[in-house]
Specification:
globular, 7 helices
Length: 118
């Protein structure tokens, strides 16, 4: 299958996932959104208002992330939104503590986390 046809089919699949309300905007020629859909990426505008609020720190770089990373971030936000308020507060405190660490300490923790994930 040629590349152009393949991209069109990916875009149409993306439109089906986004729903009919997004169709007119996504089909505008030259639209950055059309390129994101063709790549399979998740357009920022397709996130729910709640997801956008939780992920606001990622907005500036969202389109630079590959689809897999966008979906991992989005899934994490969905899990976070389902947590009870007391657990959310604990996570906020942990994030604050992490931000207060030196870059070397942050790297050590990231490396340790990666080792323990395997």
């Amino acid at each position: 299958m040629n590349t152009r046809l393949n991209n069109i089919l990916k875009a149409l699949a993306g439109l089906l996932l986004l729903g009919c309300t997004e169709t007119s905007f996504a089909l505008q020629p030259g639209s950055e959104r059309m390129l994101l859909i063709a790549k399979g990426d998740v357009p920022w505008q397709s996130l729910s208002p709640e997801e956008q609020r939780e992920l606001k720190g990622y907005r500036g770089n969202w389109k630079n992330y590959d689809t897999e990373k966008q979906n991992r971030i989005r899934d994490g936000a969905k899990r976070y939104m389902r947590l009870p308020p007391d657990r959310k507060e604990i996570i906020k405190q942990q994030r604050k503590h992490y931000r207060d660490l030196s870059p070397a300490e942050q790297k050590r923790l990231r490396d340790e986390y990666q080792r323990n994930r395997r």
